[in-house]
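During the reporting period the student researcher (J.K.) took over the structure-prediction task from the postdoctoral fellow and processed the backlog of single-chain submissions. One of the processed entries is reproduced below for the supervisory committee.
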Amino acid sequence: MVVSHQKQFVEEFGTFLGHEHSDACFYIYGSVHRGDHTPTSDVDGGIILDSGVVTDKKKLYAIARGLALCLTNHRVELQLNVLDRQTAIDGRFLSYDSDFTDYIKVRENKKTVVLFREAILVRIFEELITAPVF
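J.K. obtained the following structure tokens:
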């Protein structure tokens, strides 16, 4: 069985974090998580740091260096969110309310275009709930 470069990246980066930063949580969602990705699919995921809202910059730089090395080894497109544990717990950036929907609106030719529809967002949130934790 051939393992995709996306899956190889996920495995390598997950292993790196597990060995070097075991207090950080790496998760994926989207097509790579579902297993229906193509060779050109990006990896959607995130890192949750076990910290309060103040992030240790040295730790973040060390994780970024490990991420860069893994991306050098496995050339994949990546959409990655970084959160701290306190923000993830209190949900200040995870709520689906008018603050969130207003944020994702884009002005184009004097018309407001909503980038995401509610059904797509619900599917993404459902995938996040079932996403594997590395």
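The committee noted the following: Residues 5-130 form a domain with the Beta Polymerase; domain 2 fold (CATH 3.30.460).
J.K. will present the remaining backlog at the next meeting.
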